[in-house]
Amino acid sequence: MGEITHRDRPVVAIVGAGFAGLWAAKKLKDEDLDVVLIDRNNYHTFFPLLYQVAAAEIGPSEVAYPIRSMLRDMGSVSFKMGEVKYMDPGERWIQIDNDRVDYDRLILAAGSVPNFFGVPGADEHAFTLRTMHDAIPLRHHILRCFEEASAIEDPQRRRELLTFSIVGAGATGVEYAGALAELIQGPLLRDYARIDRGLPRINLIESAARVLSGFDTQLGDFAQQRLEGRGVHLLLGTTVSQVHEDRLVLGEDGEIRGHTVVWTAGVKGPSVVNNWGLGTTRSDRLEVDSTLQLPGFPEIFAAGDLADLKQDGKPLPQVAPVAIQSGELAAENIVRSLKGKPLLDFHYRDPGILAVIGRWSAVGRVGKFRFTGLFAWIIWAVVHVLKLVGFRNRLLVLTNWAWNYFSWGRASRLILPSEKPAPGPREPVAR
What's the predicted TM-score (pTM) here? Predict the structure, then answer.
């Protein structure tokens, strides 16, 4: 493991303030180290609830927290806002915009970006749901579609404006489809009385034979029934071959006309990692060994979505618990490496999986137990609103979230000035 530099204390740089990066920083805060946490945004996004922002259920402030506020009680951890432009693994430094950070140990936890799998037009014309920069424009777009549809008489144009297609029926796609259906059938159709209740259409498109293919069949079947009961149209075993501004092409000859495509069909590492001189996979994720170190660079660790994590030869899901556990182990192994102790192998402890299908309904597995309906929703609320937040006053978080979530806070349905909507180049989201 190389020698420590002549600085007073070893410097640990962490790139990415998602779950992996933040939990690594928490793990290192009491060590005799200088920790530098780096992120392109000055806030942490609580990704599991981001879809609720896009569905106008809650406001951005309920899922975004200032990083510097989180670090107030972490005396050894400082924050730099910026984007990694270049790194020199041999000399152990990274270029952050116009600033250079020298390090003794490095954790790369820069997250992931949407994977469009080479589908023509998807990158240019589809919305995504990975960052706050995605969720807010998508929310505004949905509301604008209803505004325009209520003001025109052309039935075909109105139908196209009110057709919303979600590609990918994993947890994010299912949760957003359920939330969007509730938004439309609840406050929007009450607010836009000129629009016929049967006109808006939500399509959930999935290449697999069922929704939530990563869940047990029993749970996937329950989710499918609940979605269909909320009016969501399921197109299973269906692939998307092209995305255009006003339509998407299914397979070889199918077509759906509409102005809204939301892509939730998978993620990959940001392509910039290929410029860092490190080993990457075909999906632009960083290769790591069992201790989360990069082959050939024992002072560099990777965690979260960016790391190609496997267990028993199978890839691990890119979810918050994996990110948290890998971030914590990367931090612990850094401390061990600096103290000359043997490093630990990464073993994921599966806490279970959960997906919500709207108010009062969810599916989940915890250990050998399966839950559906209201009880699963209560478990989901406890896990996501109380346990995973971890940095703010939990009672305040629960109170604010519950008020906005159950009252359909009016502020969440305001169309405010914003930047160009999400379609186009995407920034990575750290997790």
Answer: 0.92
Evaluated on CA atoms 118, 122, 124, 128, the torsion sign reads negative
Phi, psi of 181 (to 5 degrees): -60, -40
Using CA atoms, how far apart are residues 261 and 145, in angstroms rounded to an integer?
Answer: 13
Q: According to DSSP H, which parts of 264-364 are helical? A: 320-339
405: closest CA among 355, 354, 363, 358? 358
User: In 3D, which of 143, 283, 313, 162 has the Cα closest to residue 233?
Assistant: 162
CA atoms within a 13 Å half-sphere pointing along the CA-CB vector of 268: 15
What domains appear along the chain, each with residue ranges and CATH number?
Answer: 11-40+82-112+269-339 (3.50.50.60), 122-267+353-413 (3.50.50.100)
Are 92 and 284 spatial neighbours (Cβ–Cβ below 8 Å)? Answer: no
Strands 64-66, 43-45: parallel, antiparallel or unpaired by DSSP?
antiparallel
Pairing verdict, β 310-311 and 314-315: antiparallel
Amino acid 3: pLDDT: 45
The helix/strand/coil state of 129 is coil
Q: Which residues are catalytic?
A: 175
pLDDT at 358: 87
| pLDDT digit string, tens, across residues 401-426 | 677 667 665 556 777 665 445 565 55
According to DSSP, residue 112 is labeled B
Length of the chain: 431
Render pLDDT for 117-167 as a digit per residue (tens, 0 to 9).
Answer: 999 999 999 999 999 999 999 999 999 999 999 999 999 999 999 999 999
All residues at 6 or more sequence positions from 373 whose CB lies less than 8 Å from its CB, including other chains: 222, 360, 361, 362
Per-residue pLDDT reduced to its tens digit, 323-373: 999 999 999 999 999 999 999 999 999 999 999 998 889 999 999 999 999
Q: What are phi and psi of 427, to 5 degrees?
A: -85, 150
Burial (CB count <10 Å: 0-12, 13-18, 19+), residue 115: middle
Q: Which ranges in 184-280 belong to alpha helices (H)?
A: 189-191, 217-229
Q: Which two tokens stand for residue 103?
A: 């390090």
What values do phi and psi take at 242, rounded to 5? -150, 150
The CA-atom distances, in angstroms, between 310 and each of 246, 274, 305 are: 40, 21, 12
